[in-house]
Amino acid sequence: MDNSLHLYARCGRADAIRIQLRHGADTEVRDAQGLTPLLLAARYNQMKVLQVLLQHGARTDAYAPLDTDFGHGVELGTCLHFAVESGHVQILKFLVTAAALDVHERTSGSQEMTPLHLAARLGRADVVRFLVARIEDINVRDAHGMTALHHACDYPNALSNEVPRITSSSPPQYLFDAAHVEVVNVLLDAGAEMDTRRSSDWATPLRCAIHRGHFLVAKTLVDHGANSGVAWWFHKFKMMLWPRDQRRHSDKRVKRKINWKRALRMSSPTLVDFAGWTALHIAASSGWQAGLALLIAHGANVELTTTESEECGITALHLAAQNGHYSSVSTLLDAGAGIHVCDDLGDAPLLCALRHGRSRIVKLLLRHGAKCEYHHDTESISLSSGSESILGSFDPRKTSALHLAAFFGLLPVVQELVKASSNLFAIDAVDDDGATPLWLAALAGHLDVVDFLAQQGANIHHYVAGASASGCAAEFGYLEVVEYISTSSPERAMLDRL
């Protein structure tokens, strides 16, 4: 009898449910998933069944696991949350008006979301419209310090596990994005704060949208005036007064931190996250070209630097260069990004690219006037202190000390590295973009290094993205290198013998 009650609730058989309830059926019996008949009626939009169950005393405060996976463990919801999750506005209206349920009721779990948070995250625009008309503070936060606008910008992709699995097919991504754009517009029209910050990492809604790659949502926020800059002094205040606490926040604690935030908003509330990254930094680091162009078009400052102590002074150009995002580097250079600006460790974008094996970026930066100079005393250099102390830290998975030394023309270092190597093939090892040490030496015009490496058996005819070593040397005017490679080619030697 109990199993049939669940089946009737799912199928909308209010008449059959009424008969079973008259014969003593339990309204609170749960199925294998822990759902009561009332929760099933809310999930499957069975209004008549819902009304019959409520008339017979079904509990509206019964919790069961929601179908949405939020990545923070199981979240339990009541019939109110089940109606929101499924997008059934009429069921929700009945529960709020006729059944007088609280629209601020939170889920049970690590997230403690209100129905508005849940509706915003799932892109339920009609549900959001209904709720914002009945909620005084639409900027209320969940246990992780996220507002409804944060959730509307931090939603997963359509094929993610976080999308409810009520139907077998998922909506196309563009429809999913459009639904969240509509939710964002509804929230902004209702007074949602665009520059409020998530408690755990101080991310704004714009930062959340960019991190997830939601271009349409990010554009909507920027069009409404969302900030994308950063003030270093504001970051310092935040680091002293707001420690990074990942634990759940009580309502009292959240209110206290909101007051701190408002007190610190003196003139430029433009910090994006705890590392001092702006939206432009995030877009440049991830190679999101469309977002980068959008932010620059709306006035983002390409000269702003990060403020995290471990990576202080890094510009968007540094990040794009070290991650190998060719189009992003080109866009930033066209926007006036400083090609010679150094971070707090003294590294320019060129050196960042080189240390991460980004030879194509190195070539692009050289085309825009970057200088390939190394100011250390090569006479005092010794491998005994380690290759990293010679040329600074680099990623050994993407490049080598030999690549760096060859590019900077450090012949004594190159000679010692080759002599110390037991690997015969290391001399032609390629970096992350496919460049060999000799190719880099030719690119920078170091004839002595090219000559030494060639004598050691290095391939002088190596190509990187269709560009030869001699072609690179010719592009930057190193004619002596071009002549050396040309006279060393097998084809030229054959012609000389003829």
UniProtKB/TrEMBL annotation:
It comes from Phytophthora palmivora. This is Uncharacterized protein. It comes from the Eukaryota. The keyword Magnesium does not apply. Coiled coil: none annotated. Keywords: ANK repeat, Repeat. The keyword Repeat applies. PANTHER family: ANKYRIN REPEAT AND PROTEIN KINASE DOMAIN-CONTAINING PROTEIN (PTHR24198), ANKYRIN REPEAT-CONTAINING PROTEIN-RELATED (PTHR24198:SF165). SUPFAM superfamilies: Ankyrin repeat. ANK repeats lie at residues 1-32, 33-65, 111-143, 275-307, 312-344, 345-377, 397-429, 433-461.
